[in-house]
Amino acid sequence: MANLKLRNLYKMYEQGNGKNKKKSIQQNNEYAVNNLNLEIEDGTFLGILGPSGCGKSTTLRMIAGLEEITKGEIAIGDTVINNTHPKERKIGLAFEDYALYPPLSVYNNIAFCLKANKVDKKEIDQRVRKIAKIMKVDDLLDEKVEGLSGGQKQRVNIARALVRNPKILLLDEPLSHLDGKMRQILRGEIKRLHKEMKCTTILVTHDQMEALSLADHIAIMKLGVLQQYGTPDEIYNDPVNVFVADFIGEPPMNLLPVVVKKLNGGFCFVLQDGTKIKAPAKFNSVLDEGQQYTMGIRPTSITIADEIDFDAEFTVDVFENLGDERIVSIRILEDFLTIVIEDMLVFQKGNKIYVKMKEDLLYLFDRETGERIRE
Q: In the chain, N or C terminus with fewer CB closer than 10 Å?
């Protein structure tokens, strides 16, 4: 087993036909994957996360050998596999749409690739039954796959990928077709599977909950470019730019335009409606009168305070009681500030509230570039 390395990886899809093809590429100089560099240690569970069209599935397909690489290298250990045939890469791939063979039984679907490679029948039987038990489909081996539920089909799909004893398991949106309850169940099964088999696993998803709950490390992509790579805690608590801050978290991070003003020997942030919020002292070295930033703070990093010790006063616009938590929405001209509280409090539209903001979890971003301003 060895590390998986993506070095200066590019992918550009050709457009047009014949003589127009080259011209089309030159005019549309946009890469589906743009200079991607990642080193994934053996046994890691990596989540590649991003919106549709960000290049995550393209990256997965290049690793699997299903997409030609425009530029760059993919290596397992010291061996470059750019020109290695997909079936020789020792990679298992499970698609979101299952891609099972309806006429065949569960057993024969799982065994299909082994039979195609003329593996000994006794070994096939041992491997199929072993992986079927791990994926909890051992009682379905004689069933036809067309009669299975979505969750059962995905278990068979993953079992078929694992029966090859792959060095790397690739999962392309494996839970996207399942309902909420089944997604939760199968998330737990995939996590258990990874701990049991210790196989390097790469999950492609647009669902942040899947990535945060399953992955050891997360790579966030936007328009083909890697935005941030780190642990779930690093991605959530230390976002490098506005895109990452806004993409991770439910409800998403509050992102509000502010102007810096001097206040009592320090500084404050002035919102668009004139509300003043005391600026944390940690920013004093980078702030100056009149600067414009985007202020970021997560809804869970704001608490209800009393009239004596507070950072800002607001008027409630919308109050939602969700049982285990309550959501308070504050309108600030065209923007909203969202607060999530667990206290057994009830508010009405128009109520005045006082809030405290956790200074260590308040962020500033450049208004033009979106990059994080480091204190």
A: N
Q: How far apart are CA 141 and CA 105, in angstroms?
A: 7
Task: Give Cα separations from 202 to 43, 63, 74, 86, 115 (angstroms).
Answer: 10, 10, 14, 16, 26
Q: How far is CA 325 from CA 321, 340, 361, in A?
A: 7, 7, 20
Max Cα–Cα distance, the chain, nearest Å: 81
Q: How many CB atoms lie within 10 A of CB 144?
A: 16
Task: Tell me which range, 132-136, 195-199, 261-265, 272-276, is most confidently predicted by mean pLDDT.
Answer: 272-276
| Whether the predicted pLDDT of 20 surpasses 80 | no
Spans of all domains in the chain: 4-247, 254-373
Asked if residues 356 and 300 have their Cβ atoms less than 8 Å apart, the reply is no
Q: Could you tell me which of 51, 81, 56 has the C-alpha nearest to residue 68?
A: 81
Q: Identify the CATH class of 4-247.
A: alpha beta
pLDDT in tens, 77-96: 889 999 999 988 989 988 87
> Could you give the residue ranges of the DSSP H alpha helices within the chain?
19-27, 56-64, 106-116, 121-134, 150-162, 180-197, 208-214, 232-237, 242-247
CATH homologous superfamily, domain 254-373 = Nucleic acid-binding proteins (2.40.50.140)
Instruction: Tell me which DSSP letter residue 279 carries.
Output: P
Check if the beta carbon of residue 162 is closer than 8 Å to that of residue 134. yes
Q: Is 175 within 8 Å of 186 (Cβ atoms)?
A: yes
Q: b/e map of 110-133 (b: 16 or more CB within 10 Å)?
A: bbbbbeeeeeeeeebeebbbebbe
Amino acid at 332: I
Is the Cα dihedral 89, 90, 94, 99 positive or negative? positive
Distance between CA atoms of residues 212 and 207, nearest Å:
9
The answer to whether the CB of 89 falls within 8 A of the CB of 81 is: yes
Judge whether 104 and 156 are in contact, CB under 8 Å. Answer: no
Tokens of 65: 């050998």
